[in-house]
Amino acid sequence: MSSTTTYKGKTYTFNHGVHPEEFKTLSSHCEVQRMPFVDEYTLPLGQHIGAPSKALVNKGDKVKRGQKIADAGGFVSVALHSPVDGTVSDIGIFDNPNGQVLPAIKIKTDPYSTQRVEDLPIDIENLDTKEFISAVQDAGIVGLGGAAFPTHVKFAIPEGKKCKYIMLNGCECEPFLTADHRVMVESPEEIIDGIIILNKYLNAEKAYIGIEANKPDAIEALKKVAATSSFPIEVMALQVKYPQGAEKMMITAILGEEVPSGKLPLDLGVLVGNVGTFKALAEYFRKGKPLVERVVTVTGTAIKNPANVLVPIGTPMRDVIELCGGITDDAARILLGGPMMGAVQKSLDVPVVKGTSGILILTNNEVRDLEEYNCIRCGKCVDACPIFLNPSMMGMLAKKGLWDEMLEYNVMDCFECASCSFVCPSAIPLVQSFRVAKGFLREKAAREKETN
Amino acid sequence: MDLSNKLSVSTAPFLKDKNTTPKIMMTVVYTLIPIVMISIYYFGLAALLVTITSVFSCMFTEWLFNNKQKDRFKSLKDGSGLITGLLLALTLPPGFPLWMVFIGGFVAIGMGKAMWGGLGQNIFNPALLGRAFLQAAFPTAITTWSPADGRYFGIRGTNFATPFFQGENIDAVSGATPLSKMKFDHVATDSFELLMGTTGGSLGETCALLLILAGAYLLIKKIINWRIPVSIILTVSLFSGIFYMINPEIYPSPIFMLLSGGMLLGTVYMATDLVTSPLTPKGTWIFGIGIGVLIVLIRIWGGLPEGVMYAILLMNAGTPLLNRFTKIRTYGHKKSN
Hints:
The complex is a heterodimer.
Chain A: E1 32-34, E2 40-44, E3 54-55, E4 62-63, E5 68-71, E6 80-81, E7 86-95, E8 101-109, H1 129-138, H2 151-155, E9 165-170, H3 179-186, H4 188-202, E10 206-212, H5 216-227, E11 233-238, H6 247-255, E12 270-274, H7 275-287, E13 293-299, E14 307-312, H8 317-323, E15 331-336, E16 343-344, E17 358-363, H9 380-384, H10 391-399, H11 403-408, H12 419-423, H13 430-451
Helix pairs in contact in A: 3-5, 4-5, 4-7, 10-13
Chain B: H1 21-43, H2 45-65, H3 74-77, H4 80-90, H5 98-110, H6 126-137, H7 178-185, H8 191-196, H9 208-220, H10 227-246, H11 254-259, H12 263-270, H13 281-301, H14 308-325
Helix pairs in contact in B: 1-2, 1-4, 1-9, 2-4, 2-5, 4-5, 4-6, 5-6, 6-14, 9-12, 10-13, 13-14
């Protein structure tokens, strides 16, 4: 595999981390192409973190492209919009990419519609902060990096706290994925515009854009546009290392400070958002376009034509894969997201949701089922863990089910980047067992809270 | 597109580093091969016989104790038994009776590894444990050194001694090692001789140059933790350097300390044993410094000329404690708890 070109200037980073093979060149040169409209869309009501949205439409209702079809179900929740002109064909429970079956709205596309939507800019000059925040919620905007956390919640700065730095995450440290890369290369103006819009309400001191050095064209493109802004925006080249794009790791790389355990970046005066999220922000306020589509990298060694595709939310994965030439015969795993943290899929019928950054199809060459050996305490996981945990020790405790002892080793601080499992020469399912431990400990804490 | 029987479900991560435990073990084995070869060059076929017996004994014991395993050969394939066999051989004198070698291998794997639960579970370095047992059981045989005299086909008669019989001492030429010369006669051996290995000693304790090269290779490959050799070598140099400065007539020079006996073999291959050394950076520093101090103490004041083995075994015993008390500070936490 040819290596990507790298940025030559100074780069920043955090301690520890791992270097998986990048596989970015499969799709990093592919311009974003638009996904044609398909017959039917499935829109899960709970595709973001927080309370599910509340449906506003009934079966048989006619809907317009960009029309709100579900309202936010609480403060930590966002609205949902129709990606097409069409008819609500069903409201029920359907397969969701996270493996659950969840309530969703199905919309049948109107085959005779032009699917054109007029630009309808929003007058930001007359919005106060509160109105701005509810507008972002109403636009259905969530973090497009993969977690799908409602963006307006981050924008609602609590009393007594101040956002000093707006930080844009353009690291895209997961191997294979190139969606953010293409967005940065193709729409740098909109990303910077998103920062300017947000800063009207935050009055931050400075904005940073963190980009891994394997995307020199993105760094150049954003530097050029950032130079024209009167608000100070600095583009920071970061070392190519996984998990550079984890919020905490990027903050440490750029500011040299650690986010205290159990605290938010805002406690350091930092607000972090994905570059794509800022583009979505600009699109909503300048054109009135809510979040009805996103850029998805369709890639992997088992897909015929890797591509970056602008996919309407709710498009079945099957159609996106077909657009890219289909799957080769040696496919072994289908994932939504990157290979380090993505979720494996058992069916092609799940829809692309707001948090889908990539559709990744791997062969057995990458997904090697290795034989597990005993821990030889080589300490490779200790040197890999970006938050300095001791995965080796926690793995041994997990094997014995000693969850409470794992708590002493700060297992709850683990954000499941999987670096430990990646490096383990004995192929011990470390992060996998920490997920189990965390779930168990969370449940236990909830039970204890109830009884007290 | 029917994929239902082709796709399987598992959890992230889906990429895996190419390094595997058998690969790590085999790399160590490859670095040991030149050291075994040079010992055969210096000590003749006797060295080869000791090595073969030791490796066979270790592998056989491993297989024997795997009787409850699904795959009795799985642990043989990971290469760790092979390493123990080679290392044990390298700590023995060339004329060592082969039946004792066999017992040493059995104890090394049986008591040093299998008893604890196999690979990764043991507290003490298996090869050193086997060697310690042999030292306790056969103190005379293990301190009978034949000099490296280039008698290539001159198989030493003592190799074929039979158990429980006081064999005739056919090969009575028993040379002193540089360390015993130092200890009892205060005669230092030339550094160049130590580097090249043309001195008496165990199979792998003689050619310092090869051991340094092997250590460097393992460090570059990041198989051994650099903190351990660095801390041992620094501690030994500093600590013995102080005594050398006080009285160079009685006390050995730091260079002699570093190049003689099992110092380098122990530093490169045994102290750095992944399984029996601590996991945390702070723990490894304490571990290395402890070994260094103990080596100098035993060599200068102990009853034995050599102290590397006991120094490492003693610090092995402290490893679980070091792991417990030198916790790493987690990101975003003020102190390690």
